[in-house]
C-alpha cells in the first residue's frame, strides 16, 4: 500500500544551526508534497508544500526539496530556534480532495 | 478569524459504546476532513466531506462514519467502540482552492476502556 516515511526518528540540533528532516515516499502519482509541524497538545500546522513538477521551494526560514528520482523529500530549517521543537510530518496527496497520506514523523529537539 | 473547533476535547467511553465527535470548520471552508492519530499507526485519513457529500474515504471499517451539515459543520461517529479506537481524532478544514494546506483543530482525545 501507499506509505510515506513510516519511522519516527529524533533529530537533536543546536539552537542557531540548520536542521534537515528527511522523508521517503512511495506513490509516484502524488501531485503535492507537504510538511506539517505538530507541537505538543496541538493539531498539525501547515508549513510548506511543493508540487510534483517542482524540485525546490522556499518559505520563511524553510526550504523543501523534492527528488522524484529517488522519491525523497526534505525540509530544511535555517537558524533553528527553540520554537521549532516539535514533530514534523511529511504528507503526500493527489490534487483531488484532501486525502493526505502522512509519514510517521520526525521529532526535532532544539538544544539551547 | 476563528480556527477549527472540535468538541469534546476529551472523553472516556467503554467498549461497545458509541461516540459522536463534532467539528466546526473555519468560516467559509467547505471541506472538512477527519484523521485518526495513534502512536502506533500515526496519522491516518478517515474521510473528507465537501458541501455535505463524502468526497474521499480512508480504509476504516464501517463503524466509522461521518456527515456534514449545510453550515459545513461536521460530525463523526464511531459505533461499537473497541480498545483500539483509543486515539486523537483530528478534524481539518480547507478552502476550495486545493493547495494541500489543511487547518487542523486541536483534536478530540478518545479513551476506550
List the helices and strands and how they pair.
The complex is a heterodimer of chains A (112) and B (113).
Chain A: E1 10-14, E2 19-24, E3 32-38, E4 45-51, E5 56-58, E6 62-67, E7 72-77, E8 86-93, E9 101-102, E10 106-111
Parallel strand pairs in A: 1-10
Antiparallel strand pairs in A: 2-7, 3-4, 3-8, 5-6, 6-7, 8-9, 8-10
Chain B: E1 5-7, E2 10-13, E3 19-24, E4 31-38, E5 42-50, E6 53-57, E7 64-68, E8 74-78, E9 87-94, E10 103-104, E11 108-112
Parallel strand pairs in B: 2-11
Antiparallel strand pairs in B: 1-3, 3-8, 4-5, 4-9, 5-6, 7-8, 9-10, 9-11
Task: Provide a descriptive summary of the structure in words.
The complex is a heterodimer of chains A (112) and B (113). With 112 residues, chain A is mostly beta strands. Chain A has strands at residues 10-14, 19-24, 32-38, 45-51, 56-58, 62-67, 72-77, 86-93, 101-102, 106-111. Chain A is built from no helices and 10 strands. In chain A, strands 1, 3, 4, 8, 9 and 10 form a 6-stranded mixed β-sheet that branches. A 4-stranded antiparallel β-sheet of chain A has the order 2-7-6-5, with no helix packed on it. Chain B is mainly beta. Chain B has strands at residues 5-7, 10-13, 19-24, 31-38, 42-50, 53-57, 64-68, 74-78, 87-94, 103-104, 108-112. In chain B, the strands form 2 sheets. In chain B, strands 2, 4, 5, 6, 9, 10 and 11 form a 7-stranded mixed β-sheet that branches. Chain B has a 4-stranded antiparallel β-sheet with strand order 1-3-8-7, with no helix packed on it. Chain B starts with a strand and ends with a strand.
Amino acid at each position: 500500500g501507499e506509505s510515506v516515511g513510516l519511522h519516527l526518528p529524533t533529530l537533536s540540533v543546536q539552537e542557531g544551526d540548520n536542521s534537515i528532516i528527511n522523508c521517503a515516499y512511495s506513490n509516484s502519482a502524488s501531485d503535492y508534497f507537504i510538511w506539517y509541524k505538530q507541537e505538543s497538545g496541538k493539531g498539525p500546522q501547515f508549513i510548506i508544500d511543493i508540487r510534483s513538477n517542482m524540485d525546490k521551494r522556499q518559505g520563511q526560514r524553510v526550504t523543501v526539496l523534492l527528488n522524484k528520482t529517488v522519491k525523497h523529500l526534505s525540509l530544511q530549517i535555517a537558524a533553528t530556534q527553540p520554537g521549532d521543537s516539535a514533530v514534523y510530518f511529511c504528507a503526500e496527496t493527489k490534487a483531488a480532495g484532501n486525502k493526505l497520506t502522512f509519514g510517521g514523523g520526525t521529532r526535532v529537539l532544539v538544544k539551547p | 478569524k476563528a480556527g477549527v473547533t472540535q468538541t469534546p476535547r476529551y472523553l472516556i467511553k467503554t467498549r461497545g459504546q458509541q461516540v459522536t465527535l463534532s467539528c466546526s470548520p473555519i468560516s467559509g471552508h467547505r471541506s472538512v476532513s477527519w484523521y485518526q492519530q495513534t502512536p502506533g499507526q500515526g496519522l491516518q485519513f478517515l474521510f473528507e466531506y465537501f458541501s455535505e457529500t463524502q468526497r474521499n474515504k480512508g480504509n476504516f471499517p464501517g463503524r466509522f462514519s461521518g456527515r456534514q451539515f449545510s453550515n459545513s459543520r461536521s460530525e463523526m461517529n464511531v459505533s461499537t467502540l473497541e480498545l483500539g479506537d483509543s486515539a486523537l481524532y483530528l478534524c481539518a478544514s480547507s478552502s476550495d482552492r486545493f493547495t494541500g494546506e489543511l487547518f487542523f483543530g486541536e483534536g478530540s482525545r478518545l479513551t476506550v476502556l
